[in-house]
Design brief:
Length: about 260
């Protein structure tokens, strides 16, 4: 659970980079961080992410997000500073004026979201990502041959969702690069297809919208088919494991609709 406001130890840690804090506001964007706050200080305005400084996935994700920032600044807010002590690790990004993209049919945000996804796909694979192979869907592939279809040489954001695609009057940004990987170019566009169906688009309309994306247009349809089936197995498994989280059952139905469309 994200803390609403950080403790004094965290504030002391970031103060050399923010200066005296005039205002600190919590934000609910993101799930992999212990602290998410907007800080206005003497030294600037920052979006600050923090995690407990202990070994494991959350710390590793913040390290990856720090390392990838130089490579994705054309589509993402700039990382201004990073710091840590025995208890905390923190990243300070420039604040941008944007809101979560709206994915429903007729949304005025769709052109900006699709343009942003295409710009992400045009980023050359950074050298530091070469060994970060995409494996998150492997356990839900039918076999190793299908899992191999998810391999590739594209930079993958891996968490395409409205809260991570911000749209503003001055631009749009892909945020929360917590687990960038190297994989097949269809993974991010296919993830957007699922989100679009969940937002009310038909599967056919969702695929038409993402069809100009480079990673989709150049991909083997068999890989997309395998990815659609893997997502169905994934959401079914998670919905059965966590029945109280009703959104998982809704995403299972979304994935089923997409698989049915691909089979037809």
């Amino acid at each position: 659970m994200t803390e609403r406001l950080p403790d004094s130890d965290f504030v002391d840690l970031v103060r050399p980079f923010t200066g005296s804090v005039a205002e600190m506001r919590p934000t609910e964007r993101g799930f992999m961080s212990d602290v998410l706050v907007l800080i206005d200080g003497d030294l600037g305005r920052f979006f600050v992410k923090g995690v407990r400084n202990r070994a494991g996935g959350r710390r590793d994700s913040l390290v990856r997000e720090r390392l990838i920032n130089d490579s994705v600044r054309s589509v993402s807010p700039r990382l201004c500073w990073h710091t840590e002590n025995d208890r905390w690790m923190a990243l300070g990004f420039e604040q941008v004026e944007g809101r979560p993209g709206r994915f429903e049919p007729g949304s005025p945000d769709l052109p900006a979201v699709l343009d942003l996804l295409s710009r992400v796909q045009e980023i050359p694979l950074p050298a530091l990502v070469e060994d970060w192979h995409e494996t998150r869907w492997d356990a839900f592939a039918a076999d190793e041959a299908e899992a191999q279809l998810f391999r590739g040489d594209s930079l993958i954001h891996g968490d395409v969702a409205p809260g991570n695609f911000l749209v503003g009057a001055e631009g749009s940004w892909a945020v929360d690069w917590s687990w960038p990987t190297r994989g097949a170019g269809f993974i991010d566009p296919s993830s957007l297809v699922l989100q679009l169906i969940a937002a009310g688009h038909t599967p056919e309309a969702a695929e038409d919208l993402v069809s100009p994306c480079p990673g989709w247009a150049k991909s083997d349809p068999q890989g997309i088919d395998a990815f659609a089936r893997a997502n169905l197995r994934m959401f079914r498994h998670r919905a059965e494991r966590f029945p109280e989280q009703t959104w998982l059952r809704a995403m299972e139905a979304t994935a089923q609709a997409w698989v049915d469309h691909r089979r037809a």
